Amino acid sequence: MPRILYFFALCNLVIGSGAFVLSGILQPLAQGLGVSVAAAGQVMTAYAVATALLAPVLILLTARWPRKLAIQMALGLFALGNLVCALAPNLSVLLLGRIVMGAGAVFTAVVSAYAVTLVAPALRGRALSTVFLGMSISYAIALPIGAWLGFTYGWHMPVWLCAAASLAALLAATVLLPKGVVTQSASFAGFKAAAKQTAVLRVWLRTLLFFIAIFSVFAYVGPVLLALNAISAIQLSGVLAVFGVAGVVGTLIGGWANDKFGSLQTLAAQLVVLVLTMCVLPFTQGNLPATIATLVVWGTAGFGMTAPQQSRLVSLSPAQAPLLLSLNSSMLYLGTALGAVVSGALIQSVGLANLSWVGAPFGLAALLTLGFDRSAVVKNHHQPA
Fold this sequence. Notes:
By secondary structure, the chain is an all-alpha fold. It contains 18 helices and no strands. The protein has helices spanning 4-20, 26-33, 37-40, 42-61, 67-86, 91-104, 106-116, 124-153, 156-176, 188-195, 198-218, 221-228, 233-261, 263-280, 288-303, 306-316, 321-350, 355-382. The longest helix has 30 residues, at 124-153.
C-alpha cells in the first residue's frame, strides 16, 4: 500500500476520536451541562447531520482544488470545531462546535476517493480498509481513554486532547502532503447520471439502514454497558477498548474479504452476524464475559462493512467517486443521527439494556437490500453480450 494511506489512517484516527469520544461519557457530560442523557446524546446528532448536509457541498466546492488544500481545509474546520467544543460553557455552544466538526469530517470522503486512485481496482478493498483503519483504532484508543478521563477529570479533558490532536494533524498535513495533486473532479452532471443507477441508491440506503442499527446502541454505548453490567469506569474503559480492537480486526478482515470474495458476499455475511448479535446482546445482562464476547463479534462484523460498501460504490461509477463517497458518508452520518434520535426517544419505554432490539430491524432491512443487488448481478450475467 502507498505510504500516504497510513498517514490518512492516522488522520482518521484523529477524526474518529473527536467524533465519537463523547458517546462514552454522556453521563458526566449531561451532569456537567445540567441536561438529560438523551439531550446530551444529541451531540452525536448535530455532528452527524452537519456532516450529512455539508460534506457533499464542500466536495463540490473543492472539486478542482489541489488535494492538499482540500485536506488542509477539512482538518482546519475539524480543529476549529474541537476548540469550540472544548471551550463550550453550555449545550448550545457545544452543538455549534459539533456542527463545525461535522463540516470538517469531509476529510474522510476526500481521502477515500484519493486512496482508490493510488491502487489497482483489485486492491481497492484493502486500500479503503487501510484508510479506515484509523477510524477503527479510534474506538480502541479514544473511547476507553476518553471514558476514563471523562469520568475521572470531567468531560472537557478528552475534548481538549482531541483539539490538540486535530491541530497536530493539520500541521502534519501541511508539512507532509505533496503539492499540486488534483484528482478527477466531481460534477453535478456526472453525479446526476450516477445517482440514476438503482444499484447506487441501494448502496446509500444500505449504509443508512445499518448505521441506524449500529448507532441505536452506539450513540449511548457508555450508559448501555452500565445498564447491562454494574461495572466501574476503569472496567467500562476496558470493555470499550476490547470493542475497539474487534473493530480494527473487522476493518482489516472486511477489506481482505472484499477483495477475496466480492462486496456482496462479504456484506451478506457481516449483516447476518450484526443482526444476530444485536438480538442476543440484551440477554447478556448481568454476565460481563457474555456481553464482551457479543460485542467482539458485533464489532468485527459492523466495522468490516465500510470497505465493501465503498468498494461497491466506486465500482459502479469510478469517475464520480468523490461525490458518491461523500453522499455515502452523508448516509452514514444521517444513520448515526437517526439512530441516536430513534433510540433516544425510546430509552424510557424500552430501557438502555434493550436498545439493540430497537436497531435490529434496521439491520435486517439492510440485509434484505442485498437480495436486489444479487438479482441484478445474476440478470446482467445472463444478458447476451
